[in-house]
Design a protein that fits this description.
The chain has 267 residues and is of the alpha+beta class. It has 3 domains: 110 residues, no CATH class; 52 residues; 71 residues, Arc Repressor Mutant, subunit A (Orthogonal Bundle). 38% of the residues lie in helices and 19% in strands. A hairpin with a 6-residue loop joins strand 8 and strand 9. Helix 1 packs parallel to helix 2, helix 4 crosses helix 5 and helix 5 packs across helix 6. The longest helix is centred in the C-terminal third of the chain and has 22 residues.
Length: 267
């Protein structure tokens, strides 16, 4: 497009309906493209996503989840389609780069992959793309701005794994501490541990948001038991009904050991 001509396989729209109506219309567009190009691989970019999001009722987190979910379902229901939702970052400085994304963290729990492109402080012409995903290790990809090309170019220096933020590491350390005593802590207990032993200054609400990100990270080694609300290091144990008799005896013995350890702590 640098020569001023639009490619034949490039479509653009300057207005689009919000919410379910917008999703339905996009599904129709995809079907139309597939009818003329059976094996077409489509990349759809919405810039910025705020223009097509509904504004449902509820708190900020619930609103974000409800607003992003229809678009996530659209992407999950299509093969060979990548849906890129563009938003902005805030100007504030954050310990975790992904905290700089504008809006509630509820959106980050809905999408499959999060990417933040930011200039490197004090390094003119250099930037990095920070990536986090359900099936993707946290990674930084380095870029430099090509003056002649007029665009950002990927640096050929290898991608580097991202180190967990200080606050996230505090949370993981707190969970592992309780795990030494066969305990599964709640968010409140994790918050108290972080305050007492790591000097954490944030609120309990902030810790809950932090824990959602820890659990969403496949490399954190932390999981959350749905229904109980407790956290643990490692994978959640399957329901008793889904294991054979020999495993059930082992699980029962393990449960008794856990209860015994907790009772000793309480006494």
């Amino acid at each position: 497009m640098l020569d001023g001509r639009r490619p034949a396989n490039f479509d653009i729209a300057f207005e689009w309906p919000r919410g379910d109506e917008g999703v339905s219309r996009l599904e129709g567009w995809i079907a139309q493209k597939r009818a003329s190009h059976k094996n077409a691989r489509l990349v759809i970019v919405i810039d910025t996503v705020e223009h097509v999001l509904e504004k449902p009722k509820g708190n900020a987190y619930e609103q974000a989840v409800a607003a992003y979910s229809p678009w996530a379902r659209l992407a999950h229901g299509q093969v060979g389609v990548s849906l890129v939702l563009v938003t902005h970052t805030t100007k504030a400085s954050w310990d975790d780069v992904f905290d700089s994304i504008q809006g509630s963290t509820g959106a980050q729990g809905v999408v499959d992959t999060i990417a933040v492109f930011q200039r490197q402080a004090g390094k003119d012409g250099l930037a990095e793309l920070c990536l986090r995903g359900r099936e993707l290790a946290e990674t930084r990809v380095n870029f430099r701005f090509g003056s002649e090309e007029g665009r950002w170019l990927k640096e050929d220096m290898g991608d580097t794994p991202m180190q967990p933020s200080v606050q996230r590491q505090m949370a993981v350390d707190a969970i592992r501490h309780f795990g030494q005593f066969a305990r599964r802590p709640s968010a409140q207990e994790i918050h108290a541990r972080m305050q007492e032993h790591a000097g954490y200054k944030g609120t309990a609400s902030t810790v809950r948001t932090l824990l959602r990100r820890v659990v969403d990270d496949p490399n954190s080694g932390v999981c959350w038991e749905r229904g109980s609300g407790y956290y643990m290091a490692g994978s959640p144990t399957p329901p008793i009904d889904n294991v054979d008799s020999e495993d059930r005896e082992i699980r029962s013995a393990s449960t008794l050991s856990t209860l015994s350890a907790e009772q000793q702590l309480e006494t």
